Amino acid sequence: MVEVAALARNEDGIGTVLGILKQQFGERCQTGEAIRQQHGHTTTWIENQPPDGVVFATSTQEVSDVVRVCADHKVPIIAYGTGTSLEGHVNAPAGGICIDLMQMDQVLEVNAADLDCRVQPGVTREALNTYLRDQGLFFPIDPGANASIGGMTATRASGTNAVRYGTMKDNVLSLEAVMADGTVIRTASRARKSSAGYDLTRLLVGSEGTLAMITEITLRLQGIPEAISAARCSFPTVEAASRAVMATIQYGLPVARIELLDAMVVQALNGYSKLDLPETPLLLLEFHGSDAGVAEQAETFGMLAEEEGGTGFAATASLEERNKLWQARHDAYWAMLALRPGCDAVATDVCVPISRLADAVTACDEMAREMDLIAPVVGHAGDGNFHASLLIDKADQDEQARAAEFISWLNDLAISMDGTCTGEHGIGQGKRPYLVKELGQGTVDVMGAIKKALDPDNILNPGKILPG
Amino acid sequence: MVEVAALARNEDGIGTVLGILKQQFGERCQTGEAIRQQHGHTTTWIENQPPDGVVFATSTQEVSDVVRVCADHKVPIIAYGTGTSLEGHVNAPAGGICIDLMQMDQVLEVNAADLDCRVQPGVTREALNTYLRDQGLFFPIDPGANASIGGMTATRASGTNAVRYGTMKDNVLSLEAVMADGTVIRTASRARKSSAGYDLTRLLVGSEGTLAMITEITLRLQGIPEAISAARCSFPTVEAASRAVMATIQYGLPVARIELLDAMVVQALNGYSKLDLPETPLLLLEFHGSDAGVAEQAETFGMLAEEEGGTGFAATASLEERNKLWQARHDAYWAMLALRPGCDAVATDVCVPISRLADAVTACDEMAREMDLIAPVVGHAGDGNFHASLLIDKADQDEQARAAEFISWLNDLAISMDGTCTGEHGIGQGKRPYLVKELGQGTVDVMGAIKKALDPDNILNPGKILPG
């Protein structure tokens, strides 16, 4: 468990605000211990810092009302979706109000002809894709968890498809948002491109609820490809697999997914998902395109992989086999946990320039061994992004200390390679020290000036991204 | 000629600053009339508002020095590249110092393995592509003019390739920038994706020199495709051509370029470029991919075009024929001017959701006729972006008034279709009134708060994007 400093609480303000909100929202304003704890829950080892109350909002107007009340009394307000973020994003270090947006779960419009749609923040990515399927459309961003679109927007999520389709920053056209004073704004039109003033859309994407509350998201969609095929290929070493990824990207092959699993993860999957894969590093791929196109992509990849010592290359267009492969990839987290029953898993999330991927993954593997840590690696390798998940004995203080040291070392390694300490999980509470290391104090000061300008009383998700 | 309000001048400050800069920069600080006028030049009918002096900077340190001197004395400072912007971006309504960045023209590094490079702002896109060619790489953004990468970044430029490769916002990985107090920051690492704090890269892309001076740009590059083919197809009406574009995008065909030219432009090109095209609306296309891939794309497009009444469809992989087609497209501006010798051409730049493209272009055509204006249309149609260029008799006051009315009508039309008044030219001085119409006062107020936070004395390119 990592302790996080609590911030000064505005007790009087919180009491007043809770009184007002209970009046307005009745049963939709909850203060019970269990609900509060659940809304401060994070999926990591960061300690729980619950809010003082949880409001279940059903409209933009209600979000604006809650923000206005909180603004009047200088009380913190924190947005909540599915609670699947990993760096303490939903914690309430100064207490305050959590606003649960999961009842705002409507797909408001789908413009199939324009390949876009407008949704409320509580729509999950799976719900959206189920909704879209009949129209031959899909939304490609896939962070693993069935996260809410609002949360994915707020944390600039990405995942397995980002190598082809980009991250949330590339797939949000426009936002409706409630600013710190309760004003509702819209950041952009529905045009596919625009040069109309500052890019407020991109400023809010990834701002982790610290600059505004996102109440509607207009997303770019994709047509479901004519053909999809999947492939897997084994490699003698993580380095060889990484080199195959580098060759694929440098070749310009438009892979839709190219995921790296190290030998330990493959071993875990064989046990957990009843597979029979060679227990060496593995790449899983997906190709999207026309029938001829995906066949050509698979063939080209097979050639590139062979040059790096790849073996057992097998491509398949069968839906059943494809689903089996990708289900295994999605099971990786649970499979890894099963490697060490009862352990805590702590995810890291570095991303380096692709030319450094083999070096970074290899160094990561060696350092984990040296520090006597269990740290299986999966990666969205086509972006240079990988996660070493530390499997830690909760009772072993020394191991926890070594894990903390390892995480710090890995973040520094990525930064030294001109990479980032967070490819897709965000800064939250956990990575604030690294933000300055990565970008410098001057850059973080500019972020602080923007925060101060848009939220002068620091009521929007305080203690995240920036100090204080 | 459109007059633009002058802003209050800080005469004492300007005098002091010029004294200091002449001391430091000698011959590289110029105050002659011709040089000043040239640096306030815009390629539109907006009047010239020259700066008081022009400094030719050669390094980030020098840019920082100039900004510090201007900050100390609250004197405006305006960045200048090739001067090809269209909305008065380089005008100096309050006087001050223009900083010419064209001597900062070095490609600082190319990381071929990572498909990225780092350049100074004065590198032009053609110079960059010449530099990259031997390594099998190219930078896809093509705004027509041989603009500087710094200017393209500052105005969020795009152009013919944006339908496939995105705009500057999608192709800038990181920036070095000098803030209003002279501090030098870097906005991001070289990782292909990151969720490390606020997206300052995207905030500065398109900020038109009003938030910072951009001194280095890290760009994503593309591998030169294995195969490129071009195609053309004629249509009976602009509406039919637009419908073919809509069908192509909705199909998900990954066209690299899909440009619309109306009958008047085709007629102009036949005269200017000695071509023999049917004088009806025309689509010009380019396909990038493998040999088999481009052939398949061309075939699919041919099928879609035929359904919309397309005729004379011809695809070619011949470099010579391709160059001839695209040279004609690039000559369109000059060809249009030749339609009415001695005229002024004033470009509009609306962008609408693709489903509204046919309606918008048709309405534009009809309104121009109704208002007795000559307004040939070319468009980056795959993005829903098109330019009606008004060919105006400089001596005819009434025609100028009608043109102004037409521009206003067209911007309002795009906004009413949930589109934008500026797909790629920016707001500058010319489009400030429409920014509020498009996004609302609340949104523009948020932009104003950011401007105030990062440039409290309003010295960075005052009078652009925002009021004042």
From TrEMBL, chains A, B:
GO molecular function: D-lactate dehydrogenase (cytochrome) activity; D-lactate dehydrogenase (NAD+) activity; FAD binding
Enzyme category, top tier: oxidoreductase
Family annotation (InterPro entries): FAD-bd_oxidored_4_C, FAD-bd_PCMH, FAD-bd_PCMH-like_sf, FAD-bd_PCMH_sub2, FAD-linked_Oxase-like_C, Oxid_FAD_bind_N, Vanillyl_alc_oxidase_C-sub2
Domain of life according to the entry: Bacteria
Cofactor: FAD
Domain FAD-binding PCMH-type, residue spans: 47-224
Entry EC number(s): 1.1.2.4
This protein's UniProt keywords: FAD, Flavoprotein, Oxidoreductase, Transit peptide
Gene3D superfamilies xrefs: 3.30.465.10, 3.30.70.2740, Vanillyl-alcohol Oxidase, Chain A, domain 4
Swiss-Prot/TrEMBL GO biological process terms: lactate catabolic process
Pfam families referenced in this protein's UniProt entry, alphabetically: FAD-oxidase_C, FAD_binding_4
Family indicated by similarity: Belongs to the FAD-binding oxidoreductase/transferase type 4 family.
Descriptive protein name: D-lactate dehydrogenase (cytochrome)
Species of origin: Sulfitobacter aestuariivivens
